[in-house]
Amino acid sequence: MSAPDLPPTDDIRVLLVDDQDLFREGVRVIVDAQPGMRVVGTAADGLEAISVAEETAPDVVLMDLRMPEMDGVEATRQLLAPERAARRQQVLRVVVLTTFDLDDRAAAAIRYGASGFLLKDTTPQQLAEAIRTVATGNAVIAPQDLTRLLDRTFDAPRTPPPPYLALTDKEREIFAAVARGLSNTEVAGVVHLSESTVKTHVGAILRKLGLRDRVQIVVFAHEHGLLS
Questions:
Q1: Claim to verify: residue 21 and residue 111 sit in the same structural domain
Q2: Response regulatory domain: which residues (predicted)?
Q3: Are residues 129 and 26 both part of a single domain?
Q4: Is pLDDT above 80 for 53?
Q5: In this structure, what DSSP letter does residue 54 have?
Q6: Spatial distance between the Cα atoms of 25 and 31, rounded to a whole number of angstroms
Q7: pLDDT tens for residues 98-109?
Q8: Span 90-119, average pLDDT
Q9: Residue whose C-alpha is closest to residue 39's, from 48, 50, 51, 52
Q10: Is 4 in a helix, a strand, or coil?
Q11: Is the model's pLDDT at 88 over the cut of 90?
Q12: Integer angstrom CA distances of residue 3 from 30, 42, 132, 179
């Protein structure tokens, strides 16, 4: 385990979680070489990751899925659990790392709140871009890939939950567009509103449904059978 002191800067703080020492060190070198981000800790399994995250307060966790002691799915679930998130002073984002495209474990981690997944053979540039993307609250998974993942993990449509029924007609229209993977710019063209107004509506939808980000809107829509 390595948990150096937090840097006195506004850098994006990154925690690396993987059971392979060589892979962790390689990713550390890549991340530390990027402007505006720094590795603040490493862990060799999910159980250790939870402890190091408490010590180092990372902004982004790069989480391997297959590890001893506790795998990345369970570690993601625990790190992003509402009761633990409520005790933090900052928002924590998780990106899962996998060697398998469209991994069912990746789908489970996303259901627990991960902001997307990356293949382990991604390029240094793609890795850096992904960290910056999730740090700003966006996802690092293509909408079509997320749909393919989630279509394999949910059963038949269910009755919409009360929080969804409490959305306004316009909010439901925007919800449906976001759930299909549209960006704010694309949603604005569909619902004939300004992009800033769409952004405000998306924020209201997230608050009303108790969701973390746009990825969770897609998950919510699949989970409750709200996609036509």
A1: yes
A2: 13-135
A3: yes
A4: yes
A5: H
A6: 10
A7: 887 666 788 888
A8: 83
A9: 52
A10: coil
A11: no
A12: 17, 7, 21, 38
Question: Hey, what amino acid is at 206?
Answer: L
pLDDT of residue 154 exceeding 60, the answer is: no
Same domain as 53, residue 114: yes
CA distance 59 to 45: 18
Structure tokens, 5 = 């002191």
Place of tokens 């990106």: 95
- What pLDDT is recorded for position 118? 86
Q: In the prediction, which pLDDT does 142 show?
A: 62
Q: Is residue 219 domain-shared with residue 117, that is, in the same domain? A: no
6 occurs within a structural domain = no
Element (H, E) at 181: none
Asked whether residue 112 falls in the same domain as residue 41, the answer is yes
Integer Cα distance of 187 and 74 in angstroms: 34
Q: For position 129, which CATH number holds?
A: 3.40.50.2300
DSSP string, 113-160: T--BEEETT--HHHHHHHHHHHHTT--BS-HHHHHHHHHTT--S--PP
Mark whether 126 and 19 lie in a shared domain.
yes
The total domain count for the chain is 2
Instruction: Please tell me whether residues 115 and 159 are part of one structural domain.
Output: no
**Eight-class DSSP state of 42:** E
- Determine the structural domain holding residue 70 and report its residue range: 12-140
**Domain membership flag for residue 149:** no
Of 80, 81, 75, whose CA–CA distance to 115 is shortest? Answer: 80
Check residue 10 and give its pLDDT.
78
80 and 178 fall within a common domain: no
Confidence of residue 2 (pLDDT cuts 50, 70, 90): very low
